[in-house]
Amino acid sequence: MNVAEIFESMSYGPAPESRAAADRWLDDHQRQFGLFINNQFMAAGGGATMATHDPATGALLAQVADAQADDVDAAVKAAREACKSWRATPDHERARYLYAIARHIQKHDRLLAVLESLDNGKPIRESRDIDTQLVARHFYYHAGWAQLRSQRLPGYEPVGVVGQVIPWNFPLLMLAWKIAPAIAMGNTVVLKPAPYTPLTALLFAEIVAEAGLPPGVINIVTGGDETGALLTTHADVDKVAFTGSTAVGRIIRRATAGTGKKLSLELGGKSPFIVFDDADLDAAVEGVVDAIWFNQGQVCCAGSRLLVQESAANRFHTKLKRRMAQLRVGDPLDKGVDIGAIVDWIQHEHIDRWVKTGVAEGAELFQPDIDLPGDGCFYPPTLFTNVEPASSIAQEEIFGPVLVSMSFRTPAEAVALANNTRYGLAASVWSENVNLVLDVASKIRAGTVWVNSTNLFDAASGFGGYRESGYGREGGQEGLYEYLRPAWKKRHTPQAANELSLAEFVAAWGSHTPARPAALPLQTNGVKSAAANHTAPKLDRTPKMYIGGAQKRPDGHYTQTIYGKGGVVVGQVGDGNRKDIRDAVEAAHKAHLAKPGWSARHGHNRAQILYFVAENLEARADEFARRLALMTGQPVKSAAAEAAAAVQRLFTYAAWADKMGGAVQETTLRGVTLAVHEPVGVIGIACPDKFPLLGFVSLLAPAIARGNTVVIIPSQPHPLSATDFYQVLATSDVPAGVVNIVTGNRDHLTKTLAAHEDVDAMWYFGGAEGATAVEYLSTSNMKRTWVDYGYERDWLSQEQGEGEAFLRQAIQVKNIWVPTGE
Amino acid sequence: MVSKHDRNPGIPLDLGWVHEARVNLSATQRRTATLVARRSLKKQWQAAWLLRAVTSIDLTTLAGDDTPGRIHRLCAKARQPIRPDILAALDMGETPITVGAVCVYPSRVRDAAAALIGAAIPVASVATGFPAGPTPLPQRLGEIEAAVADGASEIDIVINRNLALNEEWEALYDEVKQMRAVCGPAHLKTILATGELGTLRRVRKASLVCMMAGADFIKTSTGKEKVNATLEVSLIMARAVRDYWERAGYRIGFKPAGGISSAKQALQWQILIKEELGDDWLNPQLFRFGASSLLGDIERQLSHYATGNYAARHHIPMS
Question: What residues make up the domain containing A279?
Answer without folding.
Answer: 271-464
